[in-house]
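From the shared-data thread, chain only:
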Amino acid sequence: MNFQIQNSNKNDIEEIFRLYKIATDYQKTKFSVHWPVFDRTLIETEISENRQWKMVANGQIACVWATTFNDPQIWEERNYDQSLYIHRIAANPEFRGQGLVGKIVEWAKVYAAQNQRQFIRMDTVGNNLGLINYYTKCGFDFFGLVKLKNTSGLPAHYDNAIVSLFQITLNRK
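Structure, as tokens:
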């Protein structure tokens, strides 16, 4: 199957929220912490800033995610490193098991290098051993658990949360 990665657009908003709802419903069956309903303005802003992405195959969105080059509340003093941060990966159930995160990682390596970034970073709320194992299999180093100091302005699932941090270091030539 041929997967293509491109920026999301305003016509994708309903599908983005559908995939977030599927992911949240799944999280509710497995974990005590789950995604809140995200503010539509957040997604619209990410789209207008070309920071909301989609992977498309056979005319369908296989998964979505967001990126930023700045994440100070989660990465604190490490935020000064030149990094690409990936947030809110949500997969279409019809495409699960097809290595989508691995495909995102390969894309992110190129995108980060094009933008002079040395690291690719992600976080997930909680001590989710399944996700920790999965993300490390996708090439991330697990940086451990961190209690966030300042969550004001972050989505609600970060309140009073312990966060797992992940990083890939890119080779510099």
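The domain at 4-169 is CATH 3.40.630.30 (Aminopeptidase).
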